[in-house]
Write a structure and sequence with these properties.
Elements: E1 3-7, E2 12-21, E3 24-29, E4 35-39, E5 47-55, E6 58-66, E7 71-73, E8 77-82, E9 85-96, E10 99-101, E11 103-105, E12 111-116, E13 119-127, E14 132-140, E15 144-146, E16 150-153, E17 156-165, E18 170-171, E19 177-179, E20 183-190
Parallel strand pairs: 5-12, 13-20
Antiparallel strand pairs: 1-2, 2-3, 3-4, 5-6, 7-11, 8-9, 9-10, 9-12, 13-14, 15-19, 16-17, 17-18, 17-20
Length: 192
Amino acid sequence: MDLETYCPVCREEQGHVIVASSRDLVVRCEICGNVKRIPLPEEEKQISVKAIVSSEESSRVCRVELPPKESCAIGDRLVVECGDEYVGVEVTAIERDQKRVKRAIASEILTLWTRKIEEVVVRVSLHDGRTTSPLFLPVTGEEPFEVGGVYRHAGRQFRIVQIKLRNGAVMRKEGWKTVARRIKRIYAVPSP
């Protein structure tokens, strides 16, 4: 069944299969086989929702097109329009009725707060026993990192001992993996 519509032969709502589509739809009743034309359903108009896109220390105001009845939640990934540029983002907060909520219907959203996830900077705290040095690794949001893995950046080689995630969880077990967009900080030690 492709859609449900009234069948004049069966004299009730029945499932119909779409046979052809042009200016109208040609549909066939699944029960009696009657074929008829019906007007194309109107496409739901998109609404423009304000989206604040954060990228490290800077933020900018962008727009995202959503169907008015679509649900949006924290953690959803969207593509927003920032002038002539399209950016992949993750929703971090939703503002509705001057309050922050975890989920809302697009038509009720005042502002989506998002962060850029296509390219992220992973912060690494490199501890050598006496001092801790910061490293900043610019990577794609889908770059994998593993506890126990050895990485090289700016001429320094290090081994990851734990990964703190944005949701507050800490990964300590050797072999556990995640992607860069989920990482808040990596704790590492120098590796020979």
